[in-house]
Design goal:
- The strands form two sheets. Strands 1-2-3-4-5-6-7-8-9-10-11-12-13-14-15-19 form a 16-stranded mixed sheet, with no helix packed on it. Strands 16-17-18 form a three-stranded parallel sheet, with helices on one face.
- It is of the alpha/beta class.
- The protein has a domain of about 120 residues: Leucine-rich repeat, LRR (right-handed beta-alpha superhelix), CATH 3.80.10.
- Helix 12 links the parallel strand 7 and strand 8.
- About 45% of the residues lie in helices and about 10% in strands.
- Pfam families: DUF7885 (PF25372), F-box-like (PF12937), LRR_6 (PF13516).
- This is F-box and leucine rich repeat protein 13.
- It comes from Saimiri boliviensis boliviensis.
- Keywords: Leucine-rich repeat, Ubl conjugation pathway.
């Protein structure tokens, strides 16, 4: 046995042993893999069966949920149908009851009116009988005692407070006349409180300068307010106003003789002035220098149409104590003011709240920017007649706390100004954008989130239509809106009026003048705006039927239907009987226009004198059956009267006897307009009052 053979033998044995064990290990491994694979297959089959069952169950579950939802909706629909049926039954019963009560109320009202008319006629008969008896000189003792008792009423015996309340309603002219009645009345007119406010503008052509001087000299310690508007007085007369040490309000607007020298005397003697109106006077920079030196508490200042002061005069406002308490400033028509002048105003009058700049063609965006840099408390702005103002001004005003804003006749303002109006001006309550051609429906959509909006004037904004107004009314702004002017918005139709009746519960004033697409259906929706007191339907398609529908409105006080050519004599009948009813019921009537009512006679003037004792203005144009003598007697009972007995113009559509004319073509082609206005109270619109 050699070593080589031993190595070979060991190697062979080792290799054989390894081969034998490897084969055994391989056979065992293969057996285990088969078992694992079989186990996995069994688990896979089980998992697949579970997923299949789960999928089937999921579909079944979804189906059952859908069925339950359908069943639930079906039950809700049935409940709604039952509820609607119950409401229909209840509303039907309520409607029948309401109709019965309304008919009963109307019958009672008619009976009451007939009774009042009967009493009214009896009063007229008694008055005629008393007039006949007055022709006889004999009177019974009872009649004489009755007259004596009547004459015993003397208002001088009333308390001073009551006397003042009566005389406060009189003008200066009337107070002077009352002082000439007797000694007692003269004493009443000399109550000191009655001369706190003196208005010389109403008697500027009647009272001489010496009377004004003596009056101011006598009541110099009591006078608080003086009004010289339009008075042509001597400088000495203006100088006498300087003796009123307690003067707080002074109006010398439109006084051509008022000069800087007059202002010097007044400023030295009246340091407590709060309100000063210098509009349309000849003041210069000398007066501007006096304002901050003497009027330390000045709050309201009007320099409208004063064109003789310059930017340097505005710089004087910051001298001394300055006019830092000024809250109202009117610079209308002051075209000489430049951008630098507005900077001077901003430096001296930082507390301005109300700013009015009308008739200012030289006003630009830079002027407004210079002003609002330091006047951030402005709440109201008026820019009428400023054609160069653009959207940049709106952007500059975003730093102010605006509540009222007014633009008119501006073509450069577009929808961009209103894009972020709800964020920049959340407290806006009054918006006047009349005759701004660049405003479209997009602007109305931007205005809809304004919760404080009460007055909106978009007259002559011809690009506004039903879509924009509907979007505006869908927002919270419609809830508080009180006054809406949509005159000449020719694209509006009945859809807008229907939306107004649904969304505007507090609307009082509405103007739809010249909205040509408004029909009888739209007129019917107006009746559902129960809060409405005034409406303008001039130039619309309203007819006699529309007037009949509007007559059902309970609160309507003012109606304007001028240029409504579909309204005929059948729609409006005014005769003596109607005026008799008017006199018997409307005791507080102030203004009455019966022009063109050719069927009225002298009898209505007697009725008005008895029933309408507060009548102030009476218009009787083309009243052919009212005599001149009767009109002259009536003129002494009212403050203003217009009368003529000429034949009515051809465009009225009827002759002097009320018969229709035979040539309708000539009538419709006429350029005249017929306007009927029924008024029971004075104007209450804020825009008219402004």
């Amino acid at each position: 046995m050699t070593p080589e053979l031993m190595i070979k033998a060991c190697s062979f044995y080792t290799g054989h042993l390894v081969k034998t064990h490897f084969c055994t290990w391989r056979d065992i491994t293969r057996t285990n893999e088969n078992l694992v694979l079989a186990d996995k297959m069994n688990r896979a089959v089980t998992w697949y069966s579970f997923r299949l069952q789960k999928s089937v169950f999921h579909h079944w579950h979804s189906y059952m949920e859908d069925q339950k939802e359908k069943l639930k909706n079906m039950v809700l629909r049935i409940q709604r149908i039952i509820c609607c049926h119950k409401l229909t039954v209840i509303l039907t019963k309520w409607r029948n009851t309401a109709r019965y009560k309304n008919k009963k109320k109307e019958d009672e009202l008619i009976s009451k009116h007939e009774l009042q008319l009967k009493k009214w006629r009896n009063r007229l008969l008694l008055r005629g009988a008393s007039a006949e008896k007055s022709n006889f000189p004999e009177q019974s003792s009872s009649e004489v005692s009755l007259v004596d008792e009547t004459l015993e009423c003397d208002i001088s015996q009333l308390p001073e407070r009551a006397i003042l309340q009566i005389f406060f309603y009189l003008s200066l002219k009337d107070v002077i006349i009352c002082g000439q009645v007797n000694h007692a009345w003269m004493l009443m007119t000399q109550l000191s409180s009655l001369w706190n406010a003196i208005d010389f503008s109403t008697v500027k052509h009647m009272i001489p300068d010496k009377y004004i001087v003596s009056t101011l000299q006598r009541w110099r310690l009591n006078v608080l307010c003086l009004n010289f508007r339009g008075c042509l007085l001597r400088p000495k007369t203006f100088r006498s106003a300087g003796h009123c040490r307690n003067l707080q309000e002074l109006n010398v607007s439109d006084c051509p003789t008022f000069t800087d020298e007059s202002m010097r005397h007044i400023s030295e003697g009246c340091p407590g002035v709060l309100y000063l109106n210098l509009s349309n006077t000849t003041i210069t920079n000398r007066t501007m220098r006096l304002l901050p030196r003497h009027f330390h508490n000045l709050q309201n200042l009007s320099l409208a149409y004063c064109r003789r002061f310059t930017d340097k005069g505005l710089q004087y406002l910051n001298l001394g104590n300055g006019c830092h308490k000024l809250i109202y400033l009117d610079l209308s028509g002051c075209t000489q003011i430049s951008v630098q002048g507005f900077r001077y105003i901003a430096n001296s009058c930082t507390g301005i709240l109300h700013l009015t700049i009308n008739d200012m063609p030289t006003l630009t965006d830079n002027c407004v920017k210079a002003l609002v840099e330091k006047c951030s408390h402005i709440t109201s702005m008026v820019f009428t007649g400023a054609p160069h103002i653009s959207d940049c001004t709106f952007k500059a005003l975003s730093t102010c706390k605006l509540r009222k804003i007014r633009f008119e006749g501006n073509k450069r303002i577009t929808d961009a100004s209103f894009k972020f109006i709800d964020k920049n001006y959340p407290n806006l309550s009054h918006i006047y954008m009349a005759d701004c051609k660049g405003i479209t429906d997009s602007s109305l959509r931007s205005l809809s989130p304004l919760k404080q909006l009460t007055v909106l004037n978009l007259a002559n904004c011809v690009r506004i239509g039903d879509v924009g107004l509907r979007q505006f009314l869908d927002g919270p702004a419609s809830i508080r809106i009180r006054e809406l002017n949509l005159s000449n918005c020719v694209q509006l139709s009945d859809v807008s009026v229907m939306k107004l009746s649904e969304r505007c519960p507090n609307l009082n004033y509405l103007s739809l003048r010249n909205c040509e697409h408004l029909t009888a259906q739209g007129i019917a929706y107006i009746v559902n705006i129960f809060s409405l007191v005034s409406i303008d339907l001039s130039g619309t398609d309203i007819s006699n039927e529309g007037l009949s529908v509007l007559s059902r409105h309970k609160k309507l006080k003012e109606l304007s239907v001028s240029a409504c050519y579909r309204i005929t004599d059948d729609g409006i009948q005014i005769t003596d009987s109607a005026m008799e009813m008017l006199s018997a019921k409307c005791h507080y009537l102030h203004i009455l226009d019966i022009s063109g009512c050719v069927l009225l006679t002298n009898q209505i003037l007697e009725d008005l004198q008895i029933g309408c004792k507060q009548l102030r203005i009476l218009k009787m144009q083309y009243c052919t059956n009212i005599s001149k003598n009767a009109a002259e007697r009536m003129a002494s009972k009212v403050q203003q009267q217009e009368y003529n007995s000429n034949d009515p113009p051809r465009w009225f559509g009827y002759d002097r006897e009320g018969n229709p004319l035979t040539q309708p073509d000539d009538i419709t082609s006429s350029k005249g307009r017929l306007e009927l206005t029924v008024e029971k109270s004075t104007y209450s619109s804020e825009e008219e009052a402004a």
